[in-house]
Structure formats: C-alpha cells, structure tokens
Amino acid sequence: ATIQVNAGQAKEISKHLIGIFFEDINYGADGGLYAELVQNRDFEYTPTDRGNDQNWNSTHSWSVQGSDATLSIATENPIHPNNSHYAVFDVNAAEQTALVNAGFDGIALKKGEKYDFSLFGKVLEGKGGKVLVNLVDKDGTIIAQTAVNVTSKDWKQQKAVLTATSDAAAASLSIVPQAVSKYALDMISLFPQKTFKGRKNGLRADLAQTLADLHPRFVRFPGGCVAHGDGIDNIYDWKGSIGPLEARKPLRNLWGYHQTRGLGYHEYFLFCEDMGAEPVPVLAAGVPCQNSGTCAHHSKDELTCMGQQGGVPMEEMDQYIQDVLDLIEYANGDARKTVWGKKRAEAGHPKPFNLKFIGIGNEDMITPVFVERFKMIFDAVKAKHPEVTVIGTTGPFYEGTDYEVGWDLATELGVPMVDEHYYVEPGWMIHNQEYYDHYDRSKAKVYLGEYAAHLPGRPNNVETALAEALYLTAVERNGDVVEMTSYAPLLAKDGHTQWNPDLIYFNNTEVRPTVGYYTQQMYGQNAGTEYLSSTVKLNNGWDAVKKRVGVSVVKDANTGDYIVKLVNMLPVEVSSQVKLDGVTLVNPSATKTILTGDPKDRGAKPASSDFKVEGNDFSYSMPAYSFTVIRIHQV
Ligand code: AHR
C-alpha cells in the first residue's frame, strides 16, 4: 500500500495533551518513587492495612538480632497523635544486640554515596547513650557506619550521615545501642542524598528521571482509587499528607499496604514544579469508591446498587468543601496573608504552585449520593476559584452506557472538563479512532485520565504500544476537545504488582520502561501546539487495512518544528508520501525515531537517526508494526 498525507489547515490543540497518572498502586510511592529506604519507619503498619493479615503489624520489617533485648510497641506519649505507635527497645546487654530493618526487599546502596539517617528517640529507663547505626550487607559485612546519641528523656530527633563503602543490592539497617537502657524509637529513616533534584525527603532519582523523560505536561495524583478510597475513612485527606513527617497521618492503602504519606501533597506539587508539569490533584467527590456500595448502570435511567451506599454525611459536607477550598489556598494562596499559603511557606515554598486544575471524583458511579455532593463541591470551587478548572468524572466505562449519565450531569452543571477512563482491547483502539471526532465542541473538554490497551494475560508489548500510538494519532487530531491524557497505571514494583500492564516496572536497583512507555515518551517529547489536518490515501482502499495506519501532523509553535507521526499496525511495510501542503520549510533538517518489533515483543526500544528532508514533499517507508516520529527542524 502507499499512503499519501496531505497536511492542510491548522487548528490549535491542547498544550497539556500528554501527562502522567500517578497512583500509589503496585508500591508506586512507598518502596517506589518515594526514596525512603526503611520500611515501616513509623511503626504504624496494622493488620487492617492488608485484609487483617496479623503479620502486617507495627513490627513488620523489624527484627531483633543478638541476645538480651526485647522489642515491643507502645502508644503512650507518642511524638504526635497521628503517629501513635513507636518501638520500645529494651536492651540488657550493651553492644550485643541490634534492632534491624529489612527495607523494602532489602536496602540498595551504592559505593561512595551518602545516606541521611535520622530517628526520633528518648530514654524510658536508664541513661541511654551512643547508638551505632550500621548498614550491613547480606553476608554480615558492615558497609557503612555512623552513630547518634539517644540520651534525652523527651522525644528528640537525631541525624547522621553514612557513606557506603561498597555496592549492595539488599543490605539492612542495624541499630546497635552501646549502653544498657530502655529506648523509645520512632521515625527511623534512611534516605539517599542523591534524590531527584537533590531534594530532602525526595524522590528516587532514577525513577523520577524516567518520568521526567516523558516530558509530561501534567501530573495527576494521588489516584485512581487511592484518591477516593474504599470507605469514607479511607478517602485521601490531603491535609493529613502535609507538614512535618512525624505528624502526617498514615493511611491504609486500598491496594493492600500502608501509605506513610511521606510523599504527600507538598512533595507532589514540588515534583510537578521540578518537571515543569501542571499539578492535577484529584479529590473525592465526598464519596468513596462506588459510593461504598456496588452499583451498576443498566441504562441511562436504570441504576441498581447493592450494599450500603454512602458519602460524607451531609452535616460534615461544609467542612469537606472547606478542605477542598483549602487545598487551592495551600497551592496558590499568599504566603503571608492566607492560613494555608503560610503553611506552604513553612514547608519551604513561599511561591505559589500555580494550581490550574482540580479533579473532583474518580470513576464514581453517578448516583444521587454522588450527584448531591459533587454539585455542592463544584459550585463552591466555581464561586471561590473561577480561575481553577474543575474536572468532573463520567463514571466507569460500561458497554452500552458510554458515559451518558456522567456526561448528562456535566452538561447540566456546565462542568468545564470531564475525566474518562477506559481499559480496552487493542482492537477497540483500532476500530474507534473516530471516537472523539463527533464530540460536541460546545460541551465539556475531555481528560482521558486512565487508559491502556489490554490483551489477554495483560502484557505490555509492541501490539499494545502500537495500538496506543495509533489511537493517540486520533486523540491528537481531536486535541481541541481532548485537553489531557494519561496512561494508567504508571509504576509497578517487581513482586508487588496488583495490576498489569503498567508503564514502568522496577525493583530496588533497576528501572525498566515498557514498550508502551516509549509510545508515551515519543508523544510527550514531540508534542505540538497546532494540528495540521491530513488525509491518508491508501492505494488499497480496504477500510480494515486503513484503520491500521494512522498519521498525525503537528507543529510546535515554541520551536517552529513540524512533527509527523506515522503508525503502521500492518504486518507489511507501507510506503508513504508525505506532503506538507502550504508549508514552506527553510533549511530543514530532520530526525526520525522508530519504535518497531514483533507484536509480542516486550523489549522493543525506539532508535533515532537523521532523516533527509529537502522540501515539504518526501517519501517514507513505514516498517511493518512500527511507530515513527519524523521531527523537522528549520534553521
Ligand atoms: O489504574 C488502576 C485503577 O483503575 C485506578 O485506581 C482506578 O481509577 C481504575 O479503576
């Protein structure tokens, strides 16, 4: 087949099209992006974090080595009521015994690198004294050592720095008191000094850099389901995620683990700023996941729900709404004149974060319980902060409903943007490229907040990545109505994965971007501000074949570059003739980046090379099963 691309009239498209969906699922935050190396540093793990698993308790990841010492957990006079459990280490033999933390599948260390250690300690009985802090390799070799003093009768934070003398994939942290005493210990923490942008309490540099390399225009957080939780008491209360670490409110993670929330709202905002991305916080619409009941939409007018449906009680809604407004003030309020702006300044960021978007609700069933609360929150934000775009939700994707219920509500209320989610087969993406062509431009804009191509067995391979690339050519074409997109989920730790496929897999020492990651990266790094309409002519006019070839041509007004994206999901090479009608290229130079492989290949990576473009009409042969980006620069 030969295709001919004619790029014609231009239309402006969203400058926020490609972003990141961040949720603490698959150990994405604690044990993942959040660089803390000590697991259960706060001694707040509880069996209910994990379906009443009795091994998942305050001593999880901690053990005592050596003789004559006991570890117990106490709750009287904690450092802070939000962090009510701490360790009591009763040591009857000096230098003989250690309190050991196993980390998250061990602690990975790099030779020559420095690590910040800290703990809160007090002496309950005896005088206390020096406490050695060791990082110990699997074979028992001490590869870093320092010491702190624990002698005070009141909680006091102690800090020290360790330097690793060799690499270790799975070391442990060992705390060895040098004096017989009964110690109270809490918030025992170890961070690499090398975090993303060198921030304290920061993010794992390699993972964060992999995300930054996507050139995301926005970051959605903290979910997903984590945002609305699986019950009212599990809603992600943003206020519990800011302030001093020892005063943050840990939260059960509905994916079956524990959120320290050391990576909380302030850190999310900083991460966005560090990447030049817009923050897109998503807050519950006053209802937890599916309003806590199990509901199903059978049609636009027929909804059945089982179980107790509930939302935040009406008498608590004023406070709930105030919390939402306070978040906007935390992000944007004056550092001297506003309560929450002051708190942001106290956390080290007097300048506002310039929040422009806020999501209300995540994939919620559009029930009366939801509608009542959503409307209250929406009206309040609109009245107080008309400058902030509220993103509503269309509810879960069901065959036959096509989001009608959520869309009707958005239209009725005049919600400016709605969040659609769909996980679909590659075939759906191939056959629904017109999905947004018919969207009513006078209604809400779209945030495609969660999507991915799913195959049986849920691999992330060339087939799924190309289906996504193909679908995104159609999304770019509709970049006047689709404002933002984010693949989901983002991160998954080996051995702790609740959901597949994800965009990036990792363990403590490796980061493995998937083929789908490269699709996102090729779009993120080659975004445009104008879409040039193009027509694709196949010399074989068979529709099913045509649907497997996609083209999108954009111009980036910031660089003046023209960017041609070509996707070929056919098993044969397709020769193309690209005609950039009406475009005059001055001294063009171009690069081409190709992602290609066998459909089942999970390891394909893109390759870039120079590409010869002499004028606005050039030919290019698209390899079988490939996604190509040709970027034309002018001098
Ligand atoms: O991305 C994983 C989950 O899928 C999200 O938490 C939820 O919003 C969706 O159902």
UniProtKB/TrEMBL annotation:
Biological process per Gene Ontology, one example term: L-arabinose metabolic process
Keywords, comma-separated and alphabetical: Hydrolase, Signal
Entry similarity comment: Belongs to the glycosyl hydrolase 51 family.
EC number: 3.2.1.55
Full-protein positions shown: 202 to 836 of 839
A GO molecular function held by the record: alpha-L-arabinofuranosidase activity
Organism name: Bacteroides cellulosilyticus CL02T12C19
Name by which UniProt lists this protein: non-reducing end alpha-L-arabinofuranosidase
Residue intervals of the Alpha-L-arabinofuranosidase C-terminal domain: 449-626
Reactions catalysed according to its record: Hydrolysis of terminal non-reducing alpha-L-arabinofuranoside residues in alpha-L-arabinosides
Highest taxon above the source species: Bacteria
